[in-house]
Amino acid sequence: MLTLYLQMLDTPEEKTRFEEIYLKYRSAMFRAADGILHNGQDAEDAVHNAFLRIIRKFSRFQNTPVKDLAPLAVVIARNEAVSLLRRKKDAAPLEDWDGFAETAESVSDYHTLVETFARLPLSYRAALEMKMAGYSDGEIASKLGLTKTAVSTRLSRGRQFLRNIVEREGFLMDA
């Protein structure tokens, strides 16, 4: 599949840069999509669509170091997964109406969670986003210019802040 993507790019520099992005973030993007879709084939489709989107907007990725693109790549994959989930919901046969409410609820819950997450203070949100993208505490510390202890504290406080918002607004929590 990588060969197909590389053929869509013009210069050798773009091809080299895209290959770095592909090799570095493909698995994290797949995990993010699979976490939403719960289906490996659909997650592959979402990741494929995400890479096509990255290629279409490749000039936006040129000035950002590859090592800093993880959150963006994962968000693009998540968005593609949600779009795919919506398309599948819209195309469901009439026999599957029972599953409709559950799918709509999970998409609604996802959007509610994203909106709630966006209300976190930036210092907590940045650390939590990087943790969800698969970075270790040490990697987060290095990228944010903090100590590992400060990162652990921010992660803990960020989770508590999120818990408080969820409890205050009456969202149901299964965990």
Commentary on this structure:
- This protein has two domains: 1-114, no CATH class; 119-175, Arc Repressor Mutant, subunit A, CATH 1.10.10.10.
- The protein has eight helices and no strands.
- It has helices spanning 2-7, 12-37, 40-56, 70-90, 97-118, 122-132, 137-144, 148-168.
- The longest helix has 26 residues, at 12-37.
- With 175 residues, it is an all-alpha fold.
- Helix content is 75%, strand content 0%.
- The termini are far apart.
Task: Summarize the entry for a quick read.
The protein is mostly helical.
Question: Which features does this protein show?
Answer:
2 domains, 175 residues, mainly alpha, 8 helices, Arc Repressor Mutant, subunit A, single chain
Dominant shape: globular
**C-alpha termini separation:** 38 Å
Main pleated-sheet profile: none
Task: Give the tally of structural domains.
Answer: 2
Percentage of residues in strands: under 5%
Whole-number mean pLDDT: 81
Rg calc: 18 Å
Contiguous helical run count = 8
